[in-house]
Design brief:
With 299 residues, the protein is an alpha/beta fold. Helix content is 41%, strand content 19%. It is built from 12 helices and 10 strands. Helix 4 crosses helix 6.
């Protein structure tokens, strides 16, 4: 797995409130590590020594692992091992079990903060961890949030919620997020410093689709990574949706229920591009390309 390999060459600034490729790389690594943590806890009920070694290399430690079995919601809280001002990261785990896929395909909505409508399942996930999250957040301490796939949706909901409570969220990095709620929710997101990253053909970013009274939308301004190493900040969502939705006919043929989950958990090289591009390892790869490109351009 070799988590955080080369991290000494990528300057992490957890207190930074603007987007940076370096911070995106670090948070993609934390998302990638969280899948391994989740798998190890599921299989062995304990963490192997290499996870502590990886975190030690990165200069972080695990403060707490949050889990609600009823909703299959998982998150981990990390903090710096030594810093003048400790930095806390809350990272939400993405789709990693059959129950997660069942949660993802729901389209029912629920009220959110009395102002918006959001995916009912995603809201239930956040509510299941609400008490523990409340214990971890204080007005004095800045937070950095991140998540991939389902985890990106949960990180976005949490960022909006904490921002409305005037708690200091430095930034939220969202990798391959599905749509979370309606246009009213998109408006709420604008004040929460949420940076939504989309990798090439990632089809998960195009769902759920609006159905009847259940409206789903993304805001404009995504950070888009193309297949040939291009990077486009601020892309209008209409452009992305047209691109991603063109893969739906292929997805229907591919996703027979008997084998879809096994395929989706396969190595990214075995998946069609519209699913392979959703893998967190491929988000990390695209960000690393940008960092290398920035280095090449420096004087």
């Amino acid at each position: 797995m070799n988590h955080f390999a080369g991290c000494e060459n990528v300057h992490f600034e957890p207190a930074l409130t603007t987007y940076s490729h370096a911070n995106a790389w670090w948070l993609a690594e934390f998302c990638r590590l969280l899948y391994r943590i989740d798998d190890q806890l599921e299989q062995f009920r304990k963490l192997p020594a290499d996870i502590d070694l990886a975190l030690d290399r990165a200069g972080f430690k695990i403060v707490r692992i949050l889990c609600d079995h009823a909703t299959s919601t998982r998150a981990a809280v990390f903090t710096t091992r030594s810093a003048p001002t400790p930095q806390t990261l809350i990272v939400f785990c993405g789709t990693n079990a059959v129950s997660d896929w069942k949660m993802n395909i729901q389209t029912l909505q629920a009220d959110f903060l009395g102002e918006a409508r959001v995916h009912k399942g995603f809201k239930q996930c956040i509510e299941s961890l609400a008490e523990e999250l409340r214990e971890l957040t204080t007005p004095e301490e800045g937070l950095l949030l991140a998540g991939h796939s389902l985890g990106a949706a949960l990180a976005s909901l949490t960022a909006v919620q904490l921002s409305r409570q005037r708690l200091p969220v430095q930034a939220c990095y969202s990798f391959g997020s599905p749509r979370v709620g309606n246009q009213k929710f998109v408006e709420l997101m604008k004040g929460a410093r949420i940076y939504r990253l989309v990798n090439n053909c990632d089809i998960v970013t195009a769902v759920p689709r609006s159905l009847g009274l259940a409206e789903y939308a993304h805001g404009d301004g995504a950070f888009f990574f193309g297949s040939n190493g291009e990077f486009f900040p601020g892309v209008p969502d209409a452009e992305l949706q047209e691109r991603q939705l063109s893969y739906f006919p292929q997805l229907r043929k591919y996703a027979d229920l008997s084998s879809f989950f096994d395929r989706a958990k396969a190595l990214s090289t075995e998946l069609p591009v519209y699913l392979a591009d959703h893998a967190i390892v491929n988000y990390r790869y695209q960000i690393a390309r940008q960092l290398a490109s920035d280095t090449d351009r420096s004087p």
